């Protein structure tokens, strides 16, 4: 058999080149993946609204909030600007509200009629909401709003409406856990 | 027969171009983004009402917890106090009536509903079956009562469905109490 050594050598060289290119590409990707810079600067944070409920607390760096809401029998209570959402940078992140859980949600839940959490932009346009309505002794709600883009240095707000049943008993409570998701 | 040198060179160039083309086509563009979430905790408590309604006529109904009412008056009454609004706290509040629905109001020749605590603050006015006023200026809650005057053109029953807006001054926090005014023959 007549072996063409020259052609074989060329083929081997070609394969070696391909391997080299492939591995270099992978190395570059790998390098990109691990060299991303981390920043602790907060782009979006909470701020006190003009209707900040009494007894509420703001977390360190305004990155978490606990709102002490009240509900009254057969009465719609509206906090037009319970808490603001501020974009502190000249970037355009997208944000959404997401339901996480309801605790202490036992048989007492039947005392509530609804809890509505509404996200409004700086012009008052509604950007999404999560309505908690009561069915039997359970709250039902949507899981999250859709992502909405904030303009640089925008300040949005969260409006909250509460209502309890006409014969609701004072002292009944429920705790909602939500998250404000921020995507940059 | 030997292949021409140019042809061989052209094949090599074509091979290299093809290889580069495949390499570039298989590249992915990756866009990174940062995701973080800000916790939002909301304990909600049912409380006793801070402002309550009190009946001033025998035909009216105040519902459970005194936060909603159905006021019933007969046709052709004048300056009748129908409801008292009691402040159960030391807080200052402002009051406003807002119409949100009605039935059969075209039979009302004149109907005026107002707050009074010495002076009058007209909130709703119907003339010749049409609204000339569906809400009024906010006024302070100080010994406040709601009064009504109504004259009718024909027999029947008219209903004006309103919200009593109770506003915490210098904020936009408010309560809405449902109050229905029924004027009947």
**Strands of chain B, total number:** 13
Main sheet of chain B, how many strands, which sense, barrel? 6 strands, antiparallel
The biggest sheet of chain A, with number of strands, parallel, antiparallel or mixed sense and barrel status, is:
6 strands, antiparallel
- Rounded to an integer, what's the Rg of chain A over CA atoms? 27 Å
CATH class of chain B: Mainly Beta
Multimeric status of the protein: heterodimer
What's the structural domain tally of chain B?
1
Q: Roughly what percent helix of chain A? A: 10-25%
Strand content of chain B: over 45%
Number of strands of chain A: 12
Can you walk me through this structure?
The complex is a heterodimer of chains A (184) and B (185). Chain A is of the alpha+beta class. Chain A has one helix at 5-34, and strands at residues 44-48, 57-58, 65-66, 69-71, 76-87, 94-103, 112-120, 126-135, 138-140, 148-149, 155-164, 173-183. In chain A, strands 1-5-11-7-8-9 form a six-stranded antiparallel beta sheet, with no helix packed on it. The longest helix of chain A has 30 residues, at 5-34. The N and C termini of chain A lie far apart (64 Å). Chain B is mainly beta and 185 residues long. Chain B has a single domain (51-184), classed as Immunoglobulin-like. In chain B, the strands form two sheets. In chain B, strands 2-5-11-7-8-9 form a six-stranded antiparallel beta sheet, with no helix packed on it. Chain B has a six-stranded mixed beta sheet with strand order 3-4-13-12-6-10, with no helix packed on it. In chain B, a hairpin with a 6-residue loop joins strand 3 and strand 4. Chain B is elongated. Chain B starts with a helix and ends with a strand. Chains A and B meet through helix 1, strand 1, strand 3, strand 4 and strand 5 of A and strand 1 and strand 13 of B.
């Amino acid at each position: 058999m007549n072996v063409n050594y020259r052609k074989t050598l060329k083929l081997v060289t070609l394969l070696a080149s391909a391997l080299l290119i492939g591995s270099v590409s992978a190395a570059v990707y790998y390098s990109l993946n691990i060299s991303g810079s981390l920043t602790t600067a907060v782009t979006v944070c909470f701020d006190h609204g003009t209707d900040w409920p009494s007894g509420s607390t703001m977390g360190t760096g305004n990155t978490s909030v606990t709102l002490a809401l009240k509900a009254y029998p057969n009465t719609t209570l509206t906090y037009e600007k319970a808490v603001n959402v501020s974009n502190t940078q000249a970037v355009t992140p997208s944000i959404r509200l997401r339901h996480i859980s309801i605790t202490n949600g036992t048989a007492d839940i039947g005392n509530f009629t609804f809890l509505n959490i509404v996200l409004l932009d700086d012009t008052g346009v509604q950007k999404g909401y999560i309505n908690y309505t009561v069915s039997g002794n359970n709250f039902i709600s949507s899981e999250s709003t859709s992502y909405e883009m904030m303009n640089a240095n925008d300040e949005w707000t969260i409006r909250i409406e509460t209502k309890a049943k006409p014969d609701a008993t004072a002292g009944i409570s429920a705790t909602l856990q939500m998250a404000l998701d921020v995507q940059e | 027969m030997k292949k021409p040198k140019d042809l061989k060179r052209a094949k090599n160039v074509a091979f290299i171009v093809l290889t580069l083309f495949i390499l570039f086509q298989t590249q992915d563009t990756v866009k990174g983004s940062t995701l973080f979430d800000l916790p939002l905790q909301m304990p909600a408590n049912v409380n006793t009402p801070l402002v309550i309604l009190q009946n001033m006529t025998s035909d009216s109904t105040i519902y459970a917890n005194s936060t909603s009412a159905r006021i019933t008056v007969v046709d052709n009454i004048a300056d009748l106090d129908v409801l008292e609004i009691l402040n159960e706290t030391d807080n200052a509040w402002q009051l406003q009536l807002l119409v949100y629905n009605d039935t059969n109001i075209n039979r009302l020749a004149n109907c005026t509903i107002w707050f009074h605590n010495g002076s009058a603050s007209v909130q709703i006015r119907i003339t010749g079956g049409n609204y000339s006023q569906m809400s009024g200026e906010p006024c302070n809650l100080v010994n406040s009562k709601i009064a009504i005057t109504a004259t009718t053109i024909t027999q029947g029953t008219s209903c004006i469905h309103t919200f009593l807006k109770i506003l915490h001054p210098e904020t936009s926090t408010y309560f809405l109490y449902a109050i229905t005014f029924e004027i009947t023959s």
